[in-house]
Amino acid sequence: MKNRIRELRATQGWSQADLAERLDVSRQSVNAIETGRYDPSLPLAFAISRLFGLPVEAIFTPDQETA
Amino acid sequence: MAASKHEKRVHTAYLREMAGAFLVYAVLLMASIRFGRPMDESLLRILVLLSPMIGFCLALWAIARHLGRVDEYLRRFLLESFALAAGLTAGLTFSYGFLETAGYPRLSMFSVWMVLCGATMLVCLVRSVHEKLQTR
Q: With an 8 Å Cβ cutoff, are A31 and B71 in contact?
């Protein structure tokens, strides 16, 4: 799954630690999600979506669209 | 890199609970050596010699609570690491069983626990370094 979290975080001027703070997760989690090594659960994806004020599908896109 | 409040809270709670478990273990271990070893063979002696396991169980409980507190990514990372370490330990101890048949010295069952601890630390270290290299 691809995501725009790094780009959205940069526009807010937040570090990975700042974003981790706001999501109440570890900095390693933010790093793993940003680099595509970990796909967040739905509750965390929705928390990210609420934080940036964007729908989930505007932040996360599947690698390949499935039918 | 600065740790988030989440990491600090989780880490502090884990250290506090693990320190308590180790304290209980250490006290019971000293008591079992001091009082259990000289006792005559009996069920009571077995229970006294086994008593440090109360501290060990508290340590397991602390680890279980830690897994419940960490975020979902770290939980997955730790559980995968434990699984890999358990597999590595099984492979090493099973191999040594064959080596004992070949004449290697018989080892205490305590060594399995030490191998498991070492394997867990090794797996966590290797995976952490691997992840850091991947994100560069």
A: no
